[in-house]
Design goal:
Elements: E1 2-8, H1 19-28, E2 33-40, H2 43-47, E3 57-64, H3 77-95, H4 109-134, H5 138-141, H6 144-155, H7 161-164, H8 168-181, E4 200-203, H9 211-220, E5 224-228, H10 232-240, H11 247-267, E6 270-273, H12 276-284, H13 305-311, E7 318-326, H14 334-347, E8 352-357, H15 363-379, E9 395-399, H16 408-413, E10 415-420, H17 429-436, E11 440-444, H18 449-453, E12 458-460, H19 465-476, H20 479-496, H21 499-515, E13 522-524, E14 549-551
Parallel strand pairs: 1-2, 1-4, 2-3, 4-5, 5-6, 7-8, 7-10, 8-9, 10-11, 11-12
Antiparallel strand pairs: 13-14
Amino acid sequence: MRIGLLTEGGYPYVSGDAGLWCDRLVRGLGQHEFDLYALSRTERQEDQGWVRLPPQVGRVRTAPLWTAHDDGVVYGRRLRRRFAEAYGELVAAVCGGPRAAGPEAPGGSADHAGVEADRFASALYELAELARDEGGLAGALRSESAVRVLEDACRAPGALRTARTARVPDLLTVTAHIERALRPLSLDWYEDDALGSADLCHAAAGGAAALPGLLARHFLGVPLLVTEYGVHLRAHYLAASTLEEGPAVRALLATFHGRLATEVYRAAALITPGNAHARRWQERCGADRAKLRTVHPGMEAARFADVGEGVRGSRSADPGTLVWVGRIEPAKDLISLLHSFAEIRKAEPDTRLRIVGAPAEDPEAATYLTHCKALAAQLFPDEADGVHAVGDNPVSFEEIGGPEIPSLADAYACGAVVVLSSVVEGFPVSLVEAMLCGRATVSTDVGAVVEVIGGTGLVVPPRNPRALAEACVALLRDPERGERLGAAARARALELFTVEQNITAFHGIYLEIVSHSPVRRVVVDDEGEPLPFGAPAEAHVPGCWTETRFTTERRPRWAEGAPVRATVPPPVPVSVGEGT
């Protein structure tokens, strides 16, 4: 089958999110053909180029989210009125307008949410049809008319109290954000020779990545599969908490993304969260439980085999060393880890802590790393064995790729206990890597940690340095227990979190969705006659064996004309007396 893989800020770009997972999926399902539809986030991401694509990728189409090109479309009076009506309905659903107070929503909050969700979806598809009919929507979404429509929705009776406090700068910010989020509506991907030729659209994330899949389903009837290893709406909430925008902006944007997530979950044929934590978020956002299939991310176990099977149980790893591996950022809470290590040193003075991270590219991450190094120097002055020896700090900050830690597996191999100190976590990839390396782990109870670890490691509350220290000391003082936990962790990871498990699951999901999807197009030959099979057996053999054309517009000749009524056969005369 042909899969339209939809990404946003990810595959096939070199610096894309979830690029490794997408690449493993595409390479593992070589029996299918993939077309990539990628939305880029920044100009720098585009300049860095693509990864090397496998032969099963048929074509790649890209579009930027970081800039909006002038489409040159000028709306006349009728089209401006049409846009204002559709956009007004969209932002009224975001602002909580008065329509839900009518007989359509008889009082209940669930009824109100359902009416507003339907209102948002109808307006979204009306805007998409306007963009498709006229060749673009970017100019209208950035226009002064859009700002005025938003202002009217915020001032309307029944609007959210927070929305009524929005001022002109707030309205401009919200309008710009909605315009950026709706840029996929103006793309030319929704034709028979683009997404219409796919048997299935697979969105690698929610939000903007799933929006082209929504429109392909609306215009062309292509079924949509949505995979979320990190829930897009949750990520927006976390990012919004760090912004300096006013409460009106945060409330309106949160409602907008919530409405979009609800429509994505409603329209999707199936939804595949990466863990139970993401699954609960999706259910609270309106996802039907019957559509949910939990598929854990797949890790490449072979790269950790030497450490997991060879180093475990030997003394090549320092039994008195704690290891932390990951991206250095505030959500990882290295501050609590350093304070916890101070408590550990009081109980076990010879213990060392090695913090191994990727090079800090983001300015915020670099600032945080500097702060952590300063705190480590303050908490742990350089120590020396004698008067004439050079002092050494028990905490070291290292990067993967250096002479001491040439690979990721070597990072986990250098210590007996791996620590995870995060306060926010989705699916803990570093924890699974430690499990594949056969290491005992101490983790904070955030995200999907408990689901992943499953009793093969110690779990403590987040932001609790004393509890983290006590768990680490317990494993440092009982290395045999650490080895038993490490062996159990590796066995669990090999059973649940490998690439092979992930690929097998998606192969079955693809077949399930396509088997329940109706035939959307008639396959005809050059004469317009229908072909008995949409995909002849020869089509699976390399080479130009068949030439077929797909059509969704023109009716074949056998379908022309008025339908023919079925004739009823005359009754067979029966003589009186027969059969008696």
